[in-house]
Specification:
Strand content: 25-35%
Largest sheet: 6 strands, antiparallel
Distance between the termini: 102 Å
Structural class: alpha+beta
Helix content: 10-25%
Number of helices: 6
Length: 476
């Protein structure tokens, strides 16, 4: 009788095991395993520049004039934290043993609400953290920000994928930020009584002296600026838009009929060459939507994979390490497709517009694509060494929950991966390393001379330092 009972228990166990469904979503890879999953254009290689626990949830990386490496971490994503309970951080990472990989971190500022972007300014950092743009300063030299000044406030703050971000210093001397066209009445303690309404626009400002106004847009998460100040942006399926006419020319007075200044400058369709299958939730949601479109006879087609849907981090390559034909090209990640796309830019004849084209050697592939569905290339920057640095947020899911049906969210952990994150350095395989030359102690004539440097990072850093110093001698 006992043997029969044991047999019955065994059969029940086997049936239960067979009934278990395989997991719908893959698990994470180690940094080295993730690196091995990359398929990159011939002649280039990627290396791990930093990874957890040195960085976690990174969304932006910048180098300052001293060569310090600042990383924005956004563990808040994708939910809005309660007021005063933000978890975003700004960290300083360091390669202490000079082996090419950061191995130490120091928290400069924490308890920020959904911080997304930083820009060095006068020994501090300008930070976007909706509803504010802040200025953080370490005034006592202990490595922690002890001043948090509000520069501007009033920005939209109810969707982390559509908030103020992407601080970029333009050659015109203004700092531009992506606002995704969200409504907001912007004020500043620097200019009491002045208000600016930014619905339908991006945002730009100066601090020398203070000024702020709407800018042509909108961009979402990705704003590329070339050597001449032309601006390009990403917007979900539109991986490269150009903002041809400045906002101020189209809005001179209330009776001027405004025209759009945005051009989708891509000459190729939404097709991309993805190596990962669509996740279960996206494939299911797309099938449901397509059924609705078909029943309504709309003729609309929605794609779950192999088409741009999560364009992010568009960046113009203006370094001096890549071959010349790469100069001026735009790198854009697609966080849903787990890949990096590249566009060559050509001027359209007799027009201020550009044409964005697939390079001849990437017509049937991407510059970089991964088989790892956790790979989320959210941002890029060109470093002082001319290499392209790529920020991988590394999350199992990267989508706002408000866009996903409730039943599909039941087995989704939107915070899976919040303890992980990677920074990769991309360079030609035969490129020799270059020594870093700091600029913070450079003379005014040396900074002016650096404005013609072939390395875009040096040009931008020199321009910013000249604006900060405000020395009349620079004009001569």
């Amino acid at each position: 009788m006992r043997s029969v009972s044991l047999l019955f228990v065994l059969l029940i166990t086997i049936v239960a095991a067979c009934a278990q469904k395989p997991p719908r979503y893959a698990g994470p890879l180690s940094p080295e395993e993730a690196l091995a999953s990359f398929q990159i254009t011939e002649g280039f290689s990627a290396s791990v520049f930093a990874a957890e626990p040195v960085v976690a949830d990174p969304v932006e990386l910048v180098f300052d004039e001293k060569g310090r490496i600042w990383v924005v971490e956004m563990p808040d994503y994708p939910d809005k934290p309660a007021r005063g309970q933000g978890r975003s951080r700004i960290v300083l990472i360091t390669d202490t043993d000079a082996d090419g990989r950061a191995d130490a971190r120091a928290v400069f500022a924490d308890n920020l609400s959904e911080a997304t972007s930083v820009l060095p300014w006068k020994n501090g950092l300008i930070v976007t953290a909706a509803p504010d743009i802040l200025y953080l300063v370490d005034s006592d030299g202990d490595g922690r920000a002890d001043r948090r000044d509000i520069l501007f406030t009033g920005f939209f703050e109810n969707n982390s994928e559509a908030q103020i971000t992407n601080l970029r210093l333009n050659p015109d001397g203004w700092i531009y930020a992506s606002n995704f066209g969200q409504a907001g009445t912007i004020t500043s303690p620097l200019l009491p009584g002045v208000t600016v309404y930014v619905q339908g626009a991006d945002f730009r400002f100066r601090l020398d002296p203070p000024r702020f106004e709407p800018a042509a847009g909108p961009t979402q998460f990705g704003q590329a600026v070339d050597a001449w100040g032309n601006r390009f942006g990403t917007h979900n399926t539109q991986h490269i838009n150009q903002f041809v006419i400045p906002w101020r020319y189209l809005h001179r007075h209330s009776h001027l009929r405004s025209a759009g200044s945005i051009v989708n400058t891509s000459n190729h369709d939404l097709r991309m060459f993805q190596l990962t299958p669509a996740p279960y939730w996206r494939a299911t949601r797309t099938a449901r939507r397509q059924q609705q479109y078909d029943e309504a006879g709309s003729g609309r087609v929605e794609y779950a994979e192999d088409h741009f849907t999560g364009s992010s981090g568009g960046t113009v390559y203006d370094g001096d390490l890549f071959p010349n034909r790469y100069r001026g090209t735009v790198f854009t990640g697609d966080v849903a497709g787990n890949l990096v796309h590249r566009d060559s830019l050509a001027e359209k004849p007799d027009s201020p517009e550009f044409i964005a084209m697939r390079p001849f050697d990437e017509t049937e592939r991407e510059f970089l694509a991964s088989t790892d569905p956790w790979f989320r290339p959210a941002h890029f920057t060109v470093g002082p060494d001319g290499a392209l640095y790529m920020v991988d947020m590394y999350r199992q899911h990267i989508e706002t929950p408000v866009s996903i049906p409730e039943d599909l969210k039941e087995d989704m952990d939107f915070y899976a991966g919040t303890d992980r994150g990677r920074l990769f350095r991309i360079a030609p395989t035969d490129a020799a390393p270059t020594a870093f030359v700091p600029l913070h102690e450079a003379s005014t004539p040396d900074l002016v001379a650096a404005l013609t440097d072939p390395n875009g990072w040096r040009r931008r850093a020199a321009q910013r330092l000249l604006l900060e110093r405000d020395e009349p001698a620079a004009i001569d």
